[in-house]
């Protein structure tokens, strides 16, 4: 399996860290096996996330609990809609965390 690169997701946009830095994700059962790379957030990235959350707070806080739950259910349905992508996420999580595939299948489909 080819290592994957995971970007940051800030204010609705996926992309690399501001400075372009990444760190390796390794298989804990085989520390020499790199299973992926993740964007290493910088202070600028953290500031961008904080401002995005600050700007989104008024709209989000004005929603009822039922409306918030509906939004979160929609996100969960979207994440689980593609069986192939779900299986790929489970395989990656298995390699990254050293869990069994059974455990990660439960985790990624929750």
Could you explain the architecture of this structure?
By secondary structure, the protein is an alpha+beta fold. It folds into two domains: 1-62, no CATH class; 64-110, no CATH class. The chain is built from four helices and five strands; from the N terminus they run βββββαααα. It has a three-stranded mixed β-sheet, with helices on one face. A two-stranded antiparallel sheet has the order 2-3. A hairpin with a 2-residue loop joins strand 2 (8-10) and strand 3.
Integer average pLDDT: 87
Number of strands: 5
**Tally of separate helices:** 4
Main sheet: strands, sense, barrel: 3 strands, mixed
User: What oligomeric state do these chains adopt?
Assistant: single chain
What structural class do helix, strand and pairing data support? alpha+beta
Topology:
Blueprint: E1 4-6, E2 8-10, E3 13-15, E4 22-27, E5 30-39, H1 43-61, H2 65-80, H3 83-97, H4 101-108
Parallel strand pairs: 1-5
Antiparallel strand pairs: 2-3, 4-5
